[in-house]
Amino acid sequence: MKIDILTLFPEMFDIFNHSIIGRAIKNNIIEINTFDIRNCTLDKHRKVDDYPYGGGAGMIMAAQPIVDSIKTVKTNNNGKVIFLGPRGKTFDQDLAKQLSRESELIFLCGHYEGIDERVYEYIDMEISLGDFVLTGGEMACIPIVDSICRLINGVLSNSNSCIDESFYSGLLEYPQYTRPENFRGQKVPEVLISGHHDNIRKWKKAQSLNITKIKRPDLFKKYVLTEEDKKLIKDVKL
Ligand SMILES: C[S@@+](CC[C@H](N)C(=O)[O-])C[C@H]1O[C@@H](n2cnc3c(N)ncnc32)[C@H](O)[C@@H]1O
C-alpha cells in the first residue's frame, strides 16, 4: 500500500516512523509519504490561506496550492483522494477494511477554518473522525491511516490479531489476561487455563456477545446471532 498525505504540517507524521507502522515501512510493506502543500503555492510570500469571502472567523486554505498539490501527487499515486473533514462519512472498522484493500491512497488534511469549497471538485471521498471539530485534518489522518495499515497483510506479526479484535466481526473484544494467574487476589478465569480449546472459544464468544450487548447495544442490535450465539448468551456467566 502506498499512501501520500497532503498537509501543511508534514512533521506531524513522524509518528509513523515508530512502533508497528514504522517497522512495516522499514520492511517495505507500506509506504507513507508526506507532501507539503506550501511547496505548490504561487504566492511570493508562500502564503496558502486567505480571509473568507463574506466575512467570518479565521482563514481559509486557498484552492490553488491544494489543487496543484493533488495534481503533483497524482503523477505518482493513482489512489482515491480522501479529504479529512467533519462533513464526511464517519470512519469505522468497515471503512478501514474497505480502504485496506486499495493499493494506493491520497489523504488531504485541511487546517485553520477549512478549505475553499472549490477543492471538492478534486476530492473522491470525505471522511470524518466523528461529530466534533479538530484543529486540523492531520489529527484525523493519523488514526485513520494507522487503522487501515494495521489491516494490511504482514503489518501485524500475527495476522489473526485483528480478526479477534473489537469491531472486526461486529462485536467488542472479550477480556484478555496475561501472567500472573493470580494478581493480588484477582484470578484469571479458570476456563482460560483449562487447555480445553472449544470451551475457551465458547467462553471468548460469550464474553464478546455479552459485553457488546451491555456496552454497545447499538452494535449488538446489528449483529446477526447464530443458534450457538443464542445458547452461549444464556449459558455463560460474565
Ligand atoms: C478547525 S477545522 C475546520 C472546521 C470547519 N470550519 C467546520 O466548521 O466544519 C480544520 C480542519 O480540520 C479537519 N477536521 C476538523 N474536524 C474533523 C473531523 N471531525 N474529522 C476529520 N477532519 C476534521 C478538516 O480537515 C478541517 O478542514
TrEMBL record:
GO cellular component: cytosol
Location, primary (coarse class): cytoplasm
GO MF term set: tRNA (guanine(37)-N1)-methyltransferase activity
HAMAP family noted in UniProt: TrmD
Function summary: Specifically methylates guanosine-37 in various tRNAs.
Keyword terms of this UniProt record: Cytoplasm, Methyltransferase, S-adenosyl-L-methionine, Transferase, tRNA processing
Residues of the tRNA methyltransferase TRMD/TRM10-type domain: 1-222
Subcellular location: Cytoplasm
Class in the EC hierarchy, top level: transferase
PANTHER family with a match to the protein in the record: TRNA (GUANINE-N(1)-)-METHYLTRANSFERASE
Family the UniProt entry places it in: Belongs to the RNA methyltransferase TrmD family.
Entry EC number(s): 2.1.1.228
Positions with a binding annotation for S-adenosyl-L-methionine: 110, 129-134
Catalytic activity: guanosine(37) in tRNA + S-adenosyl-L-methionine = N(1)-methylguanosine(37) in tRNA + S-adenosyl-L-homocysteine + H(+)
Keyword Transmembrane helix appears in the UniProt entry: no
Name under which the protein is recorded: tRNA (guanine-N(1)-)-methyltransferase
GO annotation terms (biological process): tRNA N1-guanine methylation
Organism listed in the record: Clostridium fermenticellae
Annotated InterPro entries: Alpha/beta_knot_MTases (IPR029028), tRNA_m1G_MeTrfase_C_sf (IPR023148), tRNA_m1G_MeTrfase_TrmD (IPR002649), tRNA_m1G_MTases_N (IPR029026), tRNA_MeTrfase_TRMD/TRM10 (IPR016009)
Tree of life domain: Bacteria
Gene3D superfamilies reported for this sequence: 3.40.1280.10, tRNA(m1g37)methyltransferase, domain 2 (1.10.1270.20)
Subunit structure: Homodimer.
